[in-house]
Design goal:
The complex is a heterotrimer of chains A (384), B (169) and C (361). With 384 residues, chain A is α/β, with parallel strands linked by helices. Chain A has a domain at 5-120 and 208-222: Peroxisomal Thiolase, Chain A, domain 1, CATH 3.40.47.10. In chain A, helix 3 crosses helix 13 and helix 10 packs across helix 11 (303-309). Chain A has helices at residues 24-39, 65-68, 88-101, 121-125, 139-154, 159-172, 187-192, 253-266, 271-274, 287-294, 303-309, 325-328, 332-348, and strands at 5-12, 48-52, 79-82, 107-115, 195-198, 200-201, 210-219, 230-239, 277-280, 361-368, 373-380. Chain B has 2 domains: 25-75, no CATH class; 76-169, no CATH class. Chain B is extended and about 75 Å long. Chain C has 2 domains: 3-125 and 215-232, 3-Layer(aba) Sandwich (Peroxisomal Thiolase, Chain A, domain 1); 127-213 and 242-359, Thiolase/Chalcone synthase (Peroxisomal Thiolase, Chain A, domain 1, 3-Layer(aba) Sandwich), CATH 3.40.47. Chain C is α/β, with parallel strands linked by helices and 361 residues long. In chain C, helix 8 crosses helix 12. The longest helix of chain C is centred in the first third of the chain and has 14 residues, at 33-46. Chain C is 33% helix and 20% strand. The chains are: A alpha/beta (384), B mainly beta (169), C alpha/beta (361). Chains in contact: A-B, A-C, B-C. Chains A and C meet through helix 2, strand 3, helix 3, strand 8 and helix 8 of A and helix 1, helix 4, strand 3, helix 5 and strand 8 of C. Strand 5 of chain A pairs antiparallel with strand 4 (78-87) of chain B, so a sheet runs across the interface.
Chain lengths: 384, 169, 361
């Protein structure tokens, strides 16, 4: 019953640690205008705007859709604001897709952003509360113990994390929009970087970026633009409780269920074989092998072997994060949307230097919170 | 008056607009029991009537069953480090000297680990499975806050077997 | 021409299968968010004898800035118990928009039921200051205009335009709080004559104490159903027949504060004028705003407005809009109304507005 929906325009900012040249409105407009131009449309062609970002406290602006409405051409239109923690960029795109799939709108602009330099995100994450000891020191402090648990469970050698850190930064050299362009990156450089949250080193963690991402989604009868559309073959979201007895944070059930759902919609039975490329939310290097297992690209415990074999490298059989991924650009609220956007670029053949040859079917994944929120989509160059 | 024009001075790129907001915090009934326990030097948890799991601190519901946790359970002062990391990042509001060990501690009798600081051991000697005990502040310094727990330290027991805590990573 | 018009789509019928709300209070300092929500969610399921396993999607609305901590919606989910994992989403908006997201999913026809909930604790900080952070962060918020003063600017513009008087504001407040006497969940209910209210001091001229909403802690939940489930869970379902929301510009100076074109547009798209309306639940936190919304919706004096007492009787921010939809549906369920409209708003001086048209059988 649902309508077909496609990505017909993409745009993103140059992600940097500080975008002092633009306001928040300027930042989101930069991405949105690029997406409109790509779709060969103007603001007037857009029926509704869906915006997403991580906590409002990251910029000190409450419910920013109110302030951003005129900058995004949303005056007189429906405007919607999503917030699902780190997965928000992905779930924002999914809400936009549903507006088209349901037949309510024909062309929807979806935007996600973070301007971390406008405030202190680390502070925003560490608001003191009497039942929580101030131990975390940001997201790395939360995830590092789980990474250690993965290493123990899988028996992965400790250099695997460094391999991912190098691979994604090398990929970023092919992506002009990436925040980090580390031309000299190698295993030694990662190993020599500061140990922040043992076992996680500085260069195994994502940067803190200002940036925005935008896409124009359309119904089948409204397709336009300079590149062929990226057809959406499946969409799914899953959440599980943040903390509960017996919770597997290394291989969360919500992630497994979410991929099972989206694979069923897209007819995927062998993800490694069927996908040509994947963009997966890897903010800390070790999350590549963990998500390889969680997403069923290999057997449980074998994720690190896949990474080690080079299968996920740019020239491997299933490139992961050819754009450089979250490890190279992390405007938090937009990071999930960038995964969804990058796979759309791949199947549209517009990824430039980081284009994976002949990419036709691809997976975008985002996760958030303490690995309890997941959103995914599958896009392809062929109609579903 | 200067004859400098606006253009000469370049764009304004930064504008500091400090925001201060104060909030009251409402812990709720279940967390109040936990906090009141801390005030008495005890870890108080709650058991789910449906699945029987013990949560500490309980926020009032079983996260998987969505029902109120009603039975109060006093937990041991000792537990197991299920996993950990060593924090070496300075951040605003930090009160502990870096590097320090931030561990998931599973108290005996509980079904959920919580995050605790481990001290009295060099950071390179911490291990998964290590048995630890809570060190409390002096009795007259106890408050309804996690500040009542100074830290956890090794209690000398042999390490717990991986099988006993692998479900709680 | 609007997009929704252009698609010419007939919406899939979706019903408000169940509604529950907490007691609305000035301050609930006993319960945390989970404890506040649990009884509401138990009631919204219990009303129709279902469990969390009967809904296919969950969507919530809340704001971190009310609680003063990031990710406040995350732990609130523990009030539902999302295990095994569920398809779930959250909007940093009033629960009325969470309901909209769930309604959109139901339109696709692949799922048949959804739980929507929201919670608002307006009492934990200085609400007037908190809401200032909704304003342009570069040019307006640093001046710290408070939300009551902005509403007063709007009220002044309304008086100056000749569309209303201070006595009209008082009459709305008097009617709302008198009606609230019949609403056991209301926070402020009384029976005071207009003359007495006009003796109130100004908080910010021309708004006197009575024209302001109370500060409220509260939570609410709704179950949406379509297809067989809608029939199964109600003998006479209350159907959503039109649903839309629209945004206005942020700059107050660029708006005519005495009218609400976004409400009018949303009402047009939602097909409000397609039939007579018996009851309107209007999310007008300030008394004068009811006049603006009533005009934008084109309601005549025969329409019963805010029989629940409306936001002047209880205004849990982030839930008050969702409650309007629940209250309007309840009037249809009880047989008091055949067709009703619910309205929700967001932002300073009614910047964003949502219109939901409901019909019984």
């Amino acid at each position: 019953m649902a309508e077909r929906c496609a990505v017909i325009g993409v745009g993103q900012t140059h992600h940097k640690s500080k975008r002092e040249d633009v306001s928040i409105a300027g930042l989101v407009r930069e991405a949105a205008k690029m997406a409109l131009e790509d779709a060969d449309l103007t603001w007037a062609d857009i029926d509704a705007v869906v915006i997403g970002k991580a906590p409002d406290m990251f910029e000190g602006n409450m419910m920013p859709e109110l302030y951003l409405a005129p900058a995004l051409g949303a005056v007189g239109k429906p405007m919607f604001r999503v917030h699902t923690a780190g997965s928000v960029g992905g779930s924002t795109a999914l809400v936009a897709a549903h507006l088209v799939k349901s037949g309510i709108h024909k062309r929807v602009l979806t935007v996600a952003y973070e301007k971390q330099s406008d405030s202190d995100a680390m502070w925003a994450l560490s608001v003191p509360q009497p039942f929580a000891a101030p131990l975390l020191a940001g997201a790395g402090g939360y995830f590092a113990p789980h990474i250690r648990a993965y290493m123990r469970r899988s028996g992965a050698p400790e250099y695997i994390g460094r391999m991912v850190a190098v691979k994604d930064r090398k990929n970023a050299m092919r992506n002009p929009y990436a925040h980090l362009h580390l031309a000299d990156i190698d295993m030694k450089m990662v190993e020599d970087s500061m140990m922040l949250w043992d076992p996680l080193r500085y260069l195994e963690a994502c940067p803190s970026s200002d940036g925005a991402a935008a896409m124009v989604l359309s119904s089948e009868d409204a397709v336009s633009g300079h590149y062929p559309p990226a057809w959406i073959h499946g969409t799914a979201m899953r959440s599980e409780p943040t903390m509960f007895a017996g919770r597997d944070q290394i291989n969360p059930q919500a992630g497994r269920d979410c991929s099972a759902d989206v694979y069923a919609q897209a007819g995927i039975t062998n993800p490694r074989e069927q996908f040509d490329v994947a963009e997966v939310y890897v903010p800390f290097s070790w999350y590549e092998p963990m998500w390889l297992e969680n997403l069923g690209f290999c057997e449980l415990g074998d994720g690190w072997k896949l990474t080690e074999s080079g299968a996920t490298a740019f020239d491997g059989d299933i490139p992961w994060n050819a754009s450089g991924g979250v490890l190279s650009s992390n405007p938090i609220g937009a990071s999930g949307m960038l995964r969804f956007l990058e796979v759309a670029m791949q199947v549209r053949g517009q990824a430039g230097e980081h284009q994976v040859d002949g990419a036709k079917l691809a997976l975008g994944q985002a996760y958030g919170g303490g690995s309890q929120f997941f959103s995914m989509w599958v896009v392809g160059s062929d109609k579903p | 008056m200067s004859d400098e024009t606006t253009e000469d001075r370049g764009p304004v790129t930064t504008l500091a607009t400090p925001i201060r907001l104060d909030f009251d915090f409402t812990p709720g009934i279940a967390q109040s029991k936990f906090l009141r326990g801390l005030e008495r030097g005890k870890f108080m948890g709650q058991r789910c009537p449906t699945c029987g799991k013990v949560y500490v601190p309980s926020r009032g519901s079983c996260p998987t069953d969505g029902v109120p946790t009603t039975e109060d359970v006093e937990l041991a002062n000792v537990g197991t480090v299920t996993t950990y990391c060593v924090v070496n990042v300075p951040f605003a509001g930090q009160s502990i000297e870096i590097p320090y060990i931030c561990a998931q501690v599973l108290l005996d009798g509980a079904n959920l680990s919580f995050m605790g600081l481990i001290q009295e051991i060099p950071t390179d000697q911490i291990r998964m499975g290590m048995r630890v005990e809570a060190v409390w502040v002096e009795p007259d310094e106890l408050t309804p806050s996690l500040a009542s727990v100074r830290y956890f330290r090794p209690n000398g027991e042999p390490d717990a077997d991986y099988e006993t805590y692998k479900e709680y990573l | 021409m609007s997009a929704a018009d252009a698609t010419g789509r007939t919406p899939r019928p979706v019903s408000i299968a169940s509604f529950a709300q907490s007691q609305n209070v000035r301050r609930d300092d006993e319960h945390n968010e989970v404890e506040m929500l649990m009884p509401v969610i138990a009631e919204v399921f219990g009303n129709i004898g279902i469990t969390k396993d009967d809904v296919d999607f969950i969507c919530s609305g809340s704001s971190d800035y009310l609680i003063g901590g990031p990710f406040s919606f995350v732990m609130a989910l523990d009030a539902v118990g999302v295990w095994p994992p569920r398809s779930e989403s959250h909007v940093e908006m009033d629960g009325a928009w969470a309901l909209y997201e769930a309604w959109v999913l139901l339109q696709e026809g692949e799922i048949d039921a959804a739980l929507v909930y929201s919670f608002g604790r307006s009492s934990l900080g200085d609400l007037n200051e908190i809401l200032t952070l909704q304003l342009d962060p570069y040019y307006v918020a640093p001046l710290w205009p408070d939300t009551v003063s902005l509403a007063a600017l709007q009220a002044r513009a309304l008086i100056d335009s000749g569309k209303a008087t201070e006595a009209d504001f008082a009459a709305i407040a008097a009617r709302s709080r008198k009606d609230a006497l019949a609403n056991p969940k209301a926070q402020v209910a009384n029976d005071l004559p207009v003359e007495r209210l006009l003796e109130d001091d100004y908080v910010v001229s021309p708004l006197r104490r009575h024209a302001l909403p109370p500060i409220t802690d509260g939570a609410a939940a709704i179950v949406l159903a379509a297809g067989d489930k809608a029939r199964q869970w109600a003998d006479k379902p209350v159907w959503i027949t039109g649903f839309d929301h629209r945004m206005e510009t942020h700059s107050l100076g660029a708006r005519d504060l005495t009218s609400s074109p976004s409400t009018k547009k949303a009402a047009d798209v939602a097909g409000l004028a397609d039939g007579p309306i018996d009851v309107a639940e209007i999310h007008a936190p300030y008394a004068h705003q009811e006049i603006i919304i009533k005009a934008a919706l084109g309601l005549d004096d025969k329409v019963a407005i805010n029989p629940s007492g409306g936001p002047l009787a209880a205004n849990p921010i982030m839930s008050a809009g969702l409650i309007r939809i629940g209250e309007a549906a309840a009037r249809i369920s009880s047989g008091q109304a055949k067709r009703a409209v619910a309205h929700a708003t967001s932002g300073p001086c009614l910047q964003q507005n949502l219109v939901c048209v409901l019909e019984g059988e």
